[in-house]
Amino acid sequence: MDLGWGPEYQSAFDDLCDPALLPARVAAEHRSELDLIGLPDNPHEPIRATVAGRIHHDAVTGLELPSVGDWVAVRPGGGPGGRPAVVAVLPRRGVFARQSAGRKTSAQVVAANVDVVFVVTSLNREFNPRRLRRYLVAVRSGGAEPVLVLNKADLVDSPDAAIRRLGPMVTDVAVEPVSALRRDGVERLRGWLGAGRTVAVVGSSGVGKSTLINALLGRDVMDTGGIRVDDDEGRHTTVHRQLIPLPDGAGLLVDTPGMRELQIWAGEDAAAEIDEAFPELAALEAQCRFRDCRHEDEPGCAVVDAIREGRISHGRLEARDKLQREEERQRIRQDGALRSQQRKDRRRFSKMVRRRMKEKARGR
């Protein structure tokens, strides 16, 4: 079974310099425990494992914690009851992450080591270009390739009108209209899969992600719900994230629960990806008279001129500015959380040093 192991992971694993460790991949999360696949005794069946306390202790943002899709180093029998224990998380190559729900500043890794992310929406009242733009920024800033999957195409005469509403944001993004229920267009999606490749399937509740995964698997593995008659939306069925190998080593899928909201995690490339999502604004800004133009009442503002002439909508500028403000606020919050954690670590280290000095003095 090809789970996507490659030379980059092997190199990181060898750097641990511990012959007692084994590599495995996280298939599912269960609070403080994980299901792992790829262990030698039974590589095809998930094995429940614990996570070493040191990993939780050292985590600052949540990005350091093992998540679905991660490759990890495992110590056999190192956990309670003789269970395997995850002692290290190997470096990732593609991540879909978001700001965790709630007030705490912390990242939630939705899927790790992904090559492609299917951003699924439905061609009914759930269709929301602004929400899809957020997904594109999150996917690209994590280093994966986005594919917009317009599901429930059987509910409309043609998906062309919806694609036109997406505008410039999809000039360099693949858009795939499908009907997962009828299996229409699903075969085209298989071109994004392949041996060792991992595709995450994300989107809001009820857009048909589980139905799509069943179609790609060729059998009903995921529970699905029907359409609610009051709002024309599907019923939420997936309750936790899981990594699912396709038959015959044709790749791997990550199923995810529906997301009510997607707050952007301010990663290294988030600001640049926001600009990439609005290419026409970036081109106009290069023509503004002033480099620090705010696009309000400055003379020679190419953006304001384009809005007045109807070449772009003011809503595009507002949407871009909103994402930029959110990214800036999030970055400030993250910096504050990091500084707070560093202060806690220094205090903890100082207490440990003082305690050891006292113990040494008593020993005299």
| CATH fold field value of one domain | Rossmann fold
The quaternary structure here is single chain
Class by helix and strand content? alpha/beta
Output the number of helix runs. Answer: 10
Shape: flat
Under the CATH scheme, which class of one domain? Alpha Beta
Q: In angstroms, what separates the terminal alpha carbons?
A: 60 Å
Strand content: 15-25%
Tell how many strands the DSSP assignment holds.
13
The percentage helix is 25-40%
Q: Report on the biggest sheet.
A: 6 strands, mixed
**Which architecture name of one domain does CATH use?**
3-Layer(aba) Sandwich
State the fourth-level CATH superfamily of one domain: P-loop containing nucleotide triphosphate hydrolases
> Helices and strands, in N-to-C order?
HEEEHEEEEEHEHEHEHEEHHHH
**What is the average of the pLDDT values?**
83
Mind telling me the C-alpha Rg? Answer: 23 Å
Trace the largest sheet across and list its strands: 10-9-8-11-13-12
Question: Can you put this structure into words, describing what you see?
Answer:
Among the domains are: 7-89, Beta Barrel (OB fold (Dihydrolipoamide Acetyltransferase, E2P)); 95-255, Rossmann fold. Helices cover 32% and strands 20% of the residues. The chain has helices spanning 7-14, 53-58, 129-141, 160-166, 186-189, 209-217, 270-276, 279-285, 302-308, 314-363; strands at residues 22-30, 33-37, 47-51, 71-75, 85-89, 95-99, 107-112, 116-122, 145-151, 174-177, 198-203, 242-245, 252-255. A six-stranded mixed beta sheet has the order 10-9-8-11-13-12, sandwiched between helices. Strands 1-2-3-5-4 form a five-stranded mixed β-barrel. Helix 3 crosses helix 7 and helix 7 (270-276) packs antiparallel against helix 10 (314-363).
